[in-house]
Amino acid sequence: MPTARVWLISFAGSWALWLVLAGSVARSEVVAGAAVAASAAAIAVVVLRGRANGRVPAAPLRRLGAALLAVPVDMAGLAIALLGAAAGKPASGRFEEIRVEDGHGRAFRAAVESLSPGAYVVDDEHAAGTMLVHRLGGRG
Fold first, then answer.
1. How far apart are CA 101 and CA 38, in angstroms?
2. Buried b (16+ CB within 10 A) or exposed e, 10-45
3. Distance from the Cα of residue 99 to its chain's centroid
4. Which of 28, 41, 46, 110 has its C-alpha lying 20 to 30 A from 80's C-alpha?
């Protein structure tokens, strides 16, 4: 499918969805929806170009699935830490160094590692093939 057609279809669908979910056609919603739709359409074009062979690698999807499953558990841990901090018990955290072997997916891996509310990537040592991640809980 030609790139322009993909972009237009994605833009129109995303913009319509934005306006339906916003429940308003106020100028601010129309402009915000157009900006978001343009971004979504550009991402759709990039993704379709990258998937020319029609296959999506399974490893990144497994990482993303595992990260999404960990979010509710980390939300509970974050809530407990916040309640403890309100009661005067300081929260603790720890740093972990994780190995990253796939050089082309480093930004995706950093985003997945930071998806949880109790963890975020602090540093990316590309030359060493590691990322430094801070996680809530444990010993500091």
1. 33
2. bbeebbeebbeeeeeeeeeeeeebeeebeebbeebe
3. 19
4. 110
- Domain range enclosing 125: 58-136
Number of domains in the chain: 2
Beta bridge partners of 97: 132
How far is residue 97's CA from residue 121's CA, in Å, rounded to a whole number?
Answer: 10
Give dist(CA 33, CA 60) in Å, integer. 29
69 and 17 in a single domain? The answer is: no
43 plus 68 within the same structural domain: no
Q: Does residue 139 contact residue 92 with C-beta atoms inside 8 Å? A: yes
Give yes or no for a contact between 1 and 47, defined as CB atoms under 8 angstroms apart.
no
- Shared domain check, 17 and 67: no
Whether 67 and 24 map to the same domain: the answer is no
Q: What is the pLDDT along the chain (140 residues), one digit of tens a residue?
A: 678 888 899 999 999 999 999 998 999 999 999 999 998 888 888 777 766 555 666 777 777 788 888 888 888 888 888 898 899 988 888 898 988 776 556 777 787 888 888 888 898 887 788 889 888 875 43
